[in-house]
Amino acid sequence: MGCNANILENCFLKLKLEHSRFNSVALGEAIVTEHPSAGGLNWTIVCFPRGCKSSNGEYVSLAIGSQDKSRKAAMKVVFHVFVMGRDGTPSPSHAKGSIQVIITYKPDGTEPVMRFLDKFMKRSELESDYLIDGCITFLCVITILPDDRSISVPASDLGNHLDNLLDCTDGSDVSFLVGGETFRAHRAVLAARSPVFKAQLLGSMAVAKMDRITLHDIQPATFRALLRFIYTDALPADNVLDSCSSTIELLQHLLAAADMYHLDRLKLLCAQKLSDRVSVANVATMLGCAETHNCPELKGRCIEFFMVERNFKKVVLTEGYLRLMQRVDPLAVNNAFTEETDVPLTPRSVASKQAITITLKTATGTDTRALNTSILSCSGGELTAKVSPYRGTEEPFAHGLEKVTEKRRACQAAIMLDSCFTTFKLDYAGTKNLAVGAVICSDEISAGGHLWRLRCFPHGYSTDDHGAYLAFFLQLVSDSKNVKAIFDVALMGRDGLPSPMHTKRLMKEYSKASESWGFRCFMKRSILEQSSYLTDGYALLMFGVIVLPDNPRHNPVTVPPSDIRNHLGHLLDCTDGSDVSFSIAGETFHAHRSVLAARSPVFKAQLLGSMADANMSCITLHDIQPTTFKTLLRFIYTDTLPGDHEFGTSSSATIELLQNLLEAADMYHLERLKLVCAHKLWEHVSTDTVAAMLNFAELHNCPELKNACIDFFLVEENLKKAVLTEGYMRLMQSSPSIIDEIRERIGN
Questions:
Q1: How far is CA 640 from CA 158, 242, 604, 632, in A?
Q2: Which of 478, 483, 481 is nearest to 512 (CA)?
Q3: In this structure, are 366 and 423 located in the same domain?
Q4: Which CATH number belongs to the domain containing residue 452 in this structure?
Q5: How do residues 116-133 score in pLDDT, each as one tens digit?
Q6: How many separate domains does the chain show?
Q7: Alpha-carbon dihedral 639, 498, 114, 82, rounded to 10 degrees
């Protein structure tokens, strides 16, 4: 027996604040960071070091809000905050969550309200117990909960579609010969992702006219991983990387290739993976790689490693260190050694000081006076932090932000980390006859570069518990070692929010694959059965997996979010390399066969198969409007729809465009677009529109929207009003079978 895990949108960031600035902020003033993204909105996390009002001046207050005006409906949000302890891990005694936060908006949708953790922690305790190297660090998690009435939309499948395109090679128009191996690819995808490939394949260079290109300065394994990243924006999982004969060598070669092809995000991903693998044996080699290929993030991590005395004493005995020293100009070393420097050198002996000066000199390629800036600034990506006077909890959050735009403070490191939150719908009634120890497993989920599985024991983990408890465990599936993770479990109430009384958390280190940690006695079955948490025999739970960095004391390399959507969107806008066009009501739209074929099986048959359209450079379409096709193309390339403000000024215009788009999605078998449209149409359902929407859903084979509309009818108050509308009269005449279905559902 299994159960699907519905992935929730979330973001998780590490917010590091310098104590000197933290301590200088006055009562009511805030340190503001912006803008992590989750649920389609940009969020702002606000820290009040001396409280947000006079009544809590001895406390540190934290708050969350959004000034994004693109969404006018209410949204349920879980905001968790952890404070990092001296051991570099989150403190279990200071992990608080505003787990029933609802971000609400005024009717005009203009001023979102900020929600607070007013008394997160006493400032005196925070400063005495959690001040580490002059900084205080918070881990913040924002999780978007599903709307009870909303239609679920799966995660983006753009990467999967392009991944399949690469594997099947349909429509490939260029190949590469690398070390005797042939790799087929698509010019449009390569050009969209890399400016170097764009110049080579679509420009005036000789290779632009070649169907087969031979590459000499790259290995097959490296080029294979490079292509996979270009198509999916992801590296292989850690267990796949670790199965390679030389993971570090592959990552270094991949970083070099990313530098050569100007793939900046891949470069940072490689730097992140390499940073986690820095050791005495390889740090000198990594430092040389970082310097050669202009990677300050990896260079900073290597220098940080060198500055630890016990590491330094071992590194100087390695072959890699000797090779590194051979690159240094002796005269430059002597000059560097005699100059004063502000860098705090840990090794005390003169020999150690001279040797580490050589190392730093080699790494930076500049005089040591500049090292204080160049070394200490290698802290990864940062978000702007500003100070804002903010008074009370009733002021609209947008007003607070307006006051801080001209009062910037020094940047505080805010580093995005990896987490995954899911909902798990347990068929509790269906588990009645299971034995003690019987397990229900979720689909695999990904967090921190590792695969995980949720394991539920409806009648308990072992006979020692006498079948009285529900048990939940988190299992590490990947072949990984020493992975530290936080595991959250929360029972969801009928209001769609986590229950404070039935929420548990643990933090464990997984030493090997298949290891499980969790809660043997999460909740008594008898309590669940007598509670309101069961709905039609089902229980809904939320699980969270937060993977902590291997070495929490150093700043991890910050990798920005995937930019594949932006790259493909730009490809659509600039039309570089387009090989097909569509004529619709006098308007022409340029596109790329490979992208269309990857995303739609209908386009694949038309453009790459044996149909007549496959040989046509311009195709005329009649049964679709230009605006609809333009939006359809944008979704195909970016997997997103325009913002609500771009759909139209009136509700009727928005509904019409969404219905036309859903119809087109049905025609071209774009299942995710169909669900996105259904989700947005559902937001416009009312007693006046539900009958027409139900009829539309039936005509265009959208069971999700249809079932939601029928559920709307089942509410007595809605039914009494909806049956009096013209839409309901037309529904009775055109679709009597739907009326019968509504009657049957009401009867049940």
A1: 10, 34, 20, 10
A2: 481
A3: no
A4: 2.60.210.10
A5: 777 888 888 888 888 888
A6: 2
A7: -90
